[in-house]
């Protein structure tokens, strides 16, 4: 899952990025509104963590512009502004959640999971298909009740497919989910992880749609 982090504080931004990477998020970190606008134009994200006290332009205006353009991206405001008036203003501007600094990293991760879950239309915390169950909170995957050990990339790819189970995912969309800026991508990386997942979850669990991409099949 790919997250956009908009935070101008170097120390805090580095810590948040590191913490979210440990939770298997691919994180693109920008420090000002102009860079955030360009990132949102060029890439698809599952959520955005947005500071309000940004240089050049207030983060609240960034959020308003995003909503004015009709972009439904889940946005979690993460800021030192802790008054009720600030929270109301942020939520009324289109934020999906509001968390004040200082904060607990595990709470931030949980709130992001909830935002992404709601955005994908999931009614339960777990993602399920053909006997395979993925629990985003514990990062536990089972097949017919038995645990399945996955690498971080395999887990991320499976999460993406399960989150879009009614859709075909292109190779580029899967790469966007797997990698943040600066991370090297091999020419057949997605195919390698698809192959690994098929070995662990069933040959037909992931279908190849020639010329289009991949979608979920069955576990046989």
Task: Describe the global form.
Answer: elongated
Percentage beta strand: 15-25%
- Please outline the major beta sheet: 5 strands, parallel
Number of DSSP E strands: 11
Number of domains: 2
Distance between the termini: 27 Å
Order of helical and strand elements: EHEHEHEHEHEEEEHHHEE
Count of separate DSSP helical elements: 8
CATH topology of the largest domain: Rossmann fold
CATH class of the largest domain: Alpha Beta
What structural class is derived from the secondary structure elements?
alpha/beta
The largest sheet has its strands arranged as 2-1-3-4-5
- Give start-end ranges of low-pLDDT stretches: none
Based on CA atoms alone, the radius of gyration comes out at 18 Å
Q: What is the average of the pLDDT values?
A: 91
- Helix fraction by DSSP (H/I, runs of at least 4): 40-55%
Name the CATH architecture of the largest domain.
Answer: 3-Layer(aba) Sandwich
Q: Identify the CATH homologous superfamily of the largest domain.
A: Response regulator
What topology does this entry show?
Elements: E1 2-6, H1 10-22, E2 26-30, H2 33-42, E3 47-50, H3 59-68, E4 75-79, H4 84-92, E5 97-100, H5 105-119, E6 127-129, E7 132-135, E8 140-143, E9 146-147, H6 152-163, H7 171-178, H8 189-201, E10 206-209, E11 213-216
Parallel strand pairs: 1-2, 1-3, 3-4, 4-5
Antiparallel strand pairs: 6-7, 7-8, 8-9, 10-11
Helix pairs in contact: 6-8
Walk me through what this model shows.
There is one protein chain. The protein is built from eight helices and eleven strands. Strands 2-1-3-4-5 form a five-stranded parallel β-sheet, with helices on both faces. The longest helix has 15 residues.
């Amino acid at each position: 899952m790919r997250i956009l982090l908009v935070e101008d504080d170097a120390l805090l931004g580095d810590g948040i990025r590191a913490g979210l990477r440990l939770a298997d998020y691919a994180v693109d970190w920008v420090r000002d509104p102009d860079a955030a606008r360009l990132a949102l134009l060029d890439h698809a994200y599952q959520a955005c963590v947005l500071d309000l006290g940004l240089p050049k332009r207030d983060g609240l205006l960034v959020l308003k512009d995003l909503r004015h353009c009709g972009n439904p991206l889940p946005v979690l405001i993460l800021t030192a502004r802790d008054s009720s008036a600030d929270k109301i203003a942020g939520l009324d501007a289109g934020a999906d959640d509001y968390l004040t600094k200082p904060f607990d990293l595990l709470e931030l991760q949980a709130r992001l999971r909830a935002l992404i879950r709601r955005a994908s239309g999931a009614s339960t915390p777990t993602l399920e298909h053909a006997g395979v169950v993925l629990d985003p909170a514990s990062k536990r995957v089972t097949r017919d009740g038995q645990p399945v050990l996955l690498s971080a990339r395999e887990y991320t790819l499976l999460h993406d497919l399960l989150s879009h189970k009614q859709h075909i995912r292109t190779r580029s969309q899967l790469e966007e989910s797997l990698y943040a800026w600066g991370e090297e991508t091999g020419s057949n990386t997605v195919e390698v992880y698809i192959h690994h997942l098929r070995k662990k979850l069933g040959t037909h669990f992931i279908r190849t749609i020639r010329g289009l991409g991949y979608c979920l099949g069955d576990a046989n």
